[in-house]
Each structure stands twice: as C-alpha cells, then as structure tokens.
Amino acid sequence: MEEGLNKLRNAMKNTTFSQLDFSEQHINDIHQKIQKHEEKEDDILLSVMQLLIHEKTGYELVQHIRGRGIQKFEENEGFLYTFLHRLEQKGYLLSSWDEAERKLYRLNNKGIKLLKKAERNSSKKGIALGIMLEVRL
Predict the structure, then answer these.
(1) What pLDDT score does 92 carry?
(2) Cα 28 vs. chain centroid, distance in angstroms?
(3) pTM reported for the whole predicted model
(4) Burial of 10 (0-12, 13-18, 19+ CB in 10 A)
(5) What is the distance between the alpha carbons of residues 59 and 55, in angstroms, rounded to a whole number?
(6) What is d(CA 78, CA 73) in angstroms, rounded to the nearest whole number?
(7) CB contact set of 73 (below 8 Å; sequence gap of 6+)
C-alpha cells in the first residue's frame, strides 16, 4: 500500500501540482494548524457538552462556541450537526422541535454523567473525551 501511495504522490507532483510551489514556511504553517485543531479536539467536545446542559438550537450552539473562541465550525456547521446526531444516536442527547420548527438539543442524564466524569478528569493530561464518546469531529 505504501508503494501505491508513493506512486500516487509522484504522479500528483508531476501532473496536478506541478505548477504549485509550497515554501517551507507555508508547509510549517499548515502543519501547525493541523496540530492546533488536533490538540483542541477534546476541549471542543467538552465545550459542546457543557453548552448543551441547557437546551439550544444548533445555531445558538454555534454562536456560543464562537464566543468561546472556537473556530472549527465557523464555515463547517455540517460537522457540528453530524457530531450532534452521533451524540443523539449514542444516547447522550435529547432533541425536540419547537413551534418554529427548530430542532433543540440538550444533554440527557447519561450525557450529564459523562460530562461530570470528563470535567473531573479534564485536569489530567489526555482526557480523550472523544474516545469515551466514540465520536470524532
């Protein structure tokens, strides 16, 4: 498989990306941004769960997440709704519809218990809330 990936990489270099030139600085910036998102993933999951103690629409949740300085969902709200759906399917969230036909989300008892456990363990390095939830962003 490694050989196939190397062949694909070389083919892409010679055809598709032949006119693109990435400087070392550009490559380093991209790697730093990727690492920054990976480092914060558990914090994002924890923030979403904390915000859902009280019932919110997806739009309200995005606003509150933005207020916490998290930009991951800024132009990718679909990721958030996929995550919410997974939490709902795993039994951590309840959802309902209001009169204006907006879907509302909130943690149920199972989700609150998991959140409390995660908050207790958050001071420890490597909480891995995503693994506890079996959900990744």
Answers:
(1) 92
(2) 22
(3) 0.62
(4) exposed
(5) 12
(6) 8
(7) 62, 65, 66, 79, 80
